[in-house]
Design goal:
This is F-box domain-containing protein. InterPro entries: LRR_dom_sf (IPR032675). There is one protein chain. The chain is of the alpha/beta class. It has a 12-stranded parallel β-sheet with strand order 1-2-3-4-6-8-9-10-11-12-13-14. Helices cover 33% and strands 20% of the residues. It folds into 3 domains: 41 residues; 136 residues, Leucine-rich repeat, LRR (right-handed beta-alpha superhelix) (Alpha-Beta Horseshoe), CATH 3.80.10; 149 residues, no CATH class.
Length: 369
Amino acid sequence: MSSVPPELSDYIIDFLYDDPRALAACSLVCRDFLPTARFHYFSSIPLYGIRRYVSFAKLLEGSPALGRYVREVNIRSLTPIRPGEVPLVEKPLPNIVALLPQMKTLDMSSLDVSNAVKTVLTQATPVTELRVQYCVFPSFDDFVELFYSYPRIEELTLRGVSWRSLFHHSRDHITPAPQLRKLALGRDVDAKTIIDFMIDGNHIPHLETLSACCICDEDAAAVGALLDTLGSSLKHLELEWNPLHSATNALFLPSGLSIQACDNLETLFLRCVITVGHSIPWASSLLADLRATAIKKISIEIRLLGDLDAVNWTSLQRTLIDAKFGCLQSVTFKLKIWSGVGLTAPEVEGMIRERIPLLERKGIVHVTS
């Protein structure tokens, strides 16, 4: 293998980035293969349960140089921790943290964040992206403590996050407050509490990308207030309005949810769920509020379980062919079709193109599935 230039062997191994078995085999071929194989093999570490956590701690203890390859750590189901297991978590923690100088992403999911688990998570590291999914905190203050443990955070994703108590007290923090550039609020999140905290703590003056799922009027009002606060600083927006309960068969845009203030948007992504017997006038109403004349890309995901004409295609087309949107490069429809609808993706694509002929003539309509 010595006749193969290192840059070529590295390029070949790069194609195996998502194949752990192949990477492990490559690491045993020769010394030249080892650094690149390790780079991919240890880039993301899944710590699913106490046993893997302890095993990883022992691995780093024996081979501390491996820690510099780790860029992402995924912690899942580290609970319940029995009293006898607490030392297994707390004792190796300082060494683990010290040996992960390149860790940029922390993904934690399906955790009941007890004091022992919080000890694992609230250690200052160079993390810039934090993802918290389906975790329960003792109180909102415990979540705040976790947030402030990573002063370099730029990207925060929350989905299915809850707390047993809303208790929270303001405090002076030794570390600089995080300044987010990207925030994603998924389903089952107390959007109002999170957004109020972000605005009051001045954590979003540089926020450029926002993704939000609203399932009730309170969510919509909180997100609307956030959009008004962000205004021209926001460049990329992903939005879904899908209330769990609706008194009518038409999903109208809530009065407090508007994108008028976001006049510097470059991309807009709307998620639309069309159920049987319901229309979604909210989507065309939101687009009618659009004031970002420099917008380049608009994407609309359609999860089709009902009638395609639940969308007001006439209003949508009238808005987007306006001369003020001269910078608009593409309008993309992403289809997710329920089998019970009885239509194929090509059939739905043809129906969409027939309903917006003026946009179709401009050559900017794209349909994917």
